[in-house]
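User: Sequence for MFS transporter below. Tokens please.
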Amino acid sequence: MWRQPKAVWAVAFASVVAFMGIGLVDPILKPIADSLDATPSQVSLLFTSYMAVMGVAMLITGVVSSRIGPKRTLLLGLVVIIAGAGLAGMSDTVMGIVGWRALWGLGNALFIATALATIVGSARGSVAQAIILYEAALGLGIAVGPLVGGVLGSISWRGPFFGVSALMAVALVVTAVLLPETPRPQRATTLADPFRALRHRGLLGVAITALLYNFGFFTLLAFTPFPLNMSAHQIGLIFFGWGLALAFTSVVAAPRLQARFGTVPVLLVNLLCMSAVLAVMALGTDNKAVLASCVVIAGLFIGINNTLITETVMKAAPVERGVASAAYGFVRFGGAAFAPWLAGFLGERVSVHLPFWVGAAAVLAAAGVLGLTSRHLTGIDVEEDELDEITEQATAVTVGNDS
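Assistant: Structure tokens for MFS transporter:
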């Protein structure tokens, strides 16, 4: 699995930096609020604008990539991220940062969806091994992001934004040099393709499961720093532990559990455990030790979920993988976008405990949706040669219908 072409490693490195952006701002949420006299719900819009634009932009990633090619799409995404992160660091108002984070989300959408399809298409070995490599990049980026954010944020809340911009410039050069020109797909993707893909009940069910799961995930990510009420460096260390736990289970534990028990059973148990962790956080919100411990423990379940959900999406419907990724990303980031703002609002106006209760309920509902969807996912654990043949046949039928 680890013997891959240079092009795959180039995209993986850039993915690490891209995913750093998710957790990088976590340690500086409170410093931004203090420096710019903003409320938690206002600061949480940094996540909302980022995720909302990313979700909608997922619909155009396939359209852009199929017309200008995957490499140019990746480079375009990196350029947009560099601009968005740098301009956010130069802003003097919360709403200014929120706006530039939205631009950052557009760049991330162009990059992330194309990166996943590029790694899966270019890597040696099976789809599952390629996805593990992608999730390893995701886990490393999410782990390092809060640590870098905490270190730079202890100097200035602007530091993490400029840090991402500089690292993305390095990723841009590495990708431009090491990734060869990738051929365009035989058929140009349209805006309607992701919606057509969602007609497959298996893919739709997994996407809704991911939406609800991400609601709980980003409640934890965006709201926990406020009741923790610690320095940027301390919060960075806590979320670094969370990221390490996530990286370990996504690469090591997830494939082993999947091989022994099957994808859907592991996901169901995992979602129930994640819901229980959020419930404990709701009960122990006033105890910083409980919150910090639960953040790290949650990383174990998030890592398993990320790997298996991503792999399931790639196998849930007989459609092109880029189209499946776009459709899934569009739906799931809806939960990621709304949760941070709602958590901040409920924490301010109602109770500091309520956001975690809502997150726990959402993840529990995700388990219910997955259970109802499971009868449409019977083929996700079949041999990949057989699955690829089914996908190729479906793609050929689609091309024939379009012509």
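The mean pLDDT is 82.
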